[in-house]
Amino acid sequence: MDFLKKLFNRGPKVQTVNIEERFTLQNRVGQGSMSKVWKAIDNHSGKTVALKVLDRAKLARLNTRFVGMNKPSEGMIASVLDHPNVVKTIEHGITTEKEEFLVMEYLEGVSLSFLVDLQNDRMKLNCLNYCIQLGEGLDYLHRNAWIHRDLCPRNAIVTDDDVVKLIDFGLMVPNTPDFRKPGNRTGTANYMAPELIMRQATDERIDLFSYGVTCFEMFSGKLPWPSADTMESVLQHVNKEPKDLRKLVPELDEQIGQAIMTGIERDPNRRWRTVRRMLNEFYEAAERLGLMDA
Hints:
Elements: H1 2-8, H2 19-22, E1 23-31, E2 35-42, E3 48-54, H3 56-63, H4 74-78, E4 89-94, E5 100-105, E6 109-111, H5 112-118, H6 121-143, E7 146-147, E8 156-159, E9 164-166, E10 173-174, H7 177-180, H8 194-197, H9 205-220, H10 231-234, H11 236-239, H12 245-248, H13 254-263, H14 275-289
Antiparallel strand pairs: 1-2, 2-3, 3-5, 4-5, 6-8, 7-10, 8-9
Helix pairs in contact: 6-9, 6-14, 9-13, 13-14
């Protein structure tokens, strides 16, 4: 738990910032369910950055789920993360409008969700490589006692030089008993693990499920279950067998296909226990197939 101690022992947040004076906003580059992201010039350093501003009202509603639990803010979490497959957060604080903001490295690239939908030659050529990089980022979070809770293609960027980076930590929580208790259903419906949907106790295996669904979609362009937009459709994750990736993509290597299908097992006890175990299957297949340096 040294990582969590480091987080909670950090000094005070940066002072309140007037972002209209501090930054020159160039154009909007992203918008999440609770935030807006701009490409901006930091007028202090002259550097191009990504500026993320969280919606005050929506953030307050989210935080009502964690009353009395000492949940760290997204800025607090992101500022201590340091991994090649995780976006680097340079600064965080509060605006003069009482909104939380994060200053992150600016990445030239596209959303992983864009490539998943496109299924072009770039995606097909690099798919296993992207899966491995995404898994390395997730493994780093797990090794440092975090549960992401919202892993999906829209929360990752693929840079122009094919580096995959996790970019959103708004729902991430410490992997501690209080945050593993039943009841808190947060995440993106299509990637939610059955135990999360049923409001049961959770652990990092909910991320394994989301990772498995993401890898499934990366290889096939499809979800294991029909897209979920109602609670009834979400419950398919609990009550219905997923599509078989190996039938959707017959040319897919068996070891890769089996690794992903194990990742989306409905029973968490039948999934991979750690991301590293799933990654080991990918690395073995990559080395055997000569698809990448392993």
